[in-house]
Amino acid sequence: MPYRRILVIATRQIGDVLLITPLLRSLHHAYPKAQLDVLAFAGQAGMLLGNGDVHQVIEIACKPSVQQHRQLLRQIFRRYDLAIATLTGDKPLLYAWLAAERRIACVPPAPWQSVWKRWICHAVVPFDDVNSHTVIQNLRLADLLHISRDYALYPPVSAEKIPPLPADFVVLHLSPMWPYKRWPATHWQELLDFFQQKKMAVVLTGGNHAEELAYIHSVVGKRDVINLAGCLSLAQVAVILRQARAYLGPDTAVTHLAAASGVLTVALFGPTNPVKWSPWPVDYHCDRNPFVRKAVCQQVGNVVVLQADLPCVPCHQEGCDRHRHSRSLCMEQLSVNQVIKTLPYYNL
What we know:
By secondary structure, this protein is an alpha/beta fold. It has two domains: 5-144, 3-Layer(aba) Sandwich (Rossmann fold); 169-346, Glycogen Phosphorylase B (Rossmann fold, 3-Layer(aba) Sandwich), CATH 3.40.50. The chain is built from 13 helices and 13 strands. It has helices spanning 14-18, 21-30, 66-76, 90-99, 115-120, 134-144, 185-197, 210-220, 234-243, 253-261, 274-277, 329-332, 336-340, and strands at residues 5-9, 35-41, 56-60, 80-85, 100-107, 123-126, 169-173, 201-205, 226-227, 246-250, 265-268, 297-300, 303-306. The strands form two sheets. Strands 9-8-7-10-11-13-12 form a seven-stranded mixed sheet, with helices on both faces. Strands 3-2-1-4-5-6 form a six-stranded parallel sheet, sandwiched between helices. Helix 4 links the parallel strand 4 and strand 5. The radius of gyration is 20 Å and the shape is globular. The relative contact order is 0.12.
């Protein structure tokens, strides 16, 4: 069916928005004349900057007011031929129902959890939170339309200039959004000292939140680094990553961006399941998950995933205390030596 206007609903965090880009490219290839729009949370669509597959991004607050919902309704109500909900929540499915006469979606796997969602959709795929990578999960929506899959992620693009950098450097991202995914400060300090001994320049990336900036400052101290945290757009970060020798970081959006940019990406994983959320290797074009659930060190293409050798890894929980500000023993037990062992192969 030659759809003219398509809305993809991706109201999640910024890293998740990057992971829908293979679906967007698949749709653009299949329907090159269609207007392809994306509905995302306000402030979370930076990964789509300069994406030639997307006509426009429509933003909605994470917790919208009645007035904001009214404004969104005026923007999307029956404006589309097809709406695609990449998430299983109530709001994404309602947005799809409001936006288009034809709807496909990802829904909870148990039928009793999603009776009305299945009822309002013309086709659905069950959500797999354990055994399917998010990229593959998203591309199953393309399968419902009987179109070809495109597996590549597409980083943001911008003409913004970047600060001058050394000829040879590595990029570190010290702080994820939530502390339970954080590698200990003492581990980062030991790694920074290692790079200083190797006379390898270090560039730091990060957000502009006061708490994150304070954490980075506490880790770095008086060490000689190029701290660009809070100074760059995601598109600028992508440019820097393409020039770097390597990138190291925890399970966070910039780690996904690094993998998509083609740089050697060393991802430090703790409670999170790498089958579902590992960075997607840049040249990986396959319908099999790139990584298994548990291995101390595994590499596919330009991505290395490291995990601690503990029986509970990965627990799929928000840290040992089951909340986002919890500590995670598996991150504490992921040693600096384990990270450094991955680096000599790359002449670092």
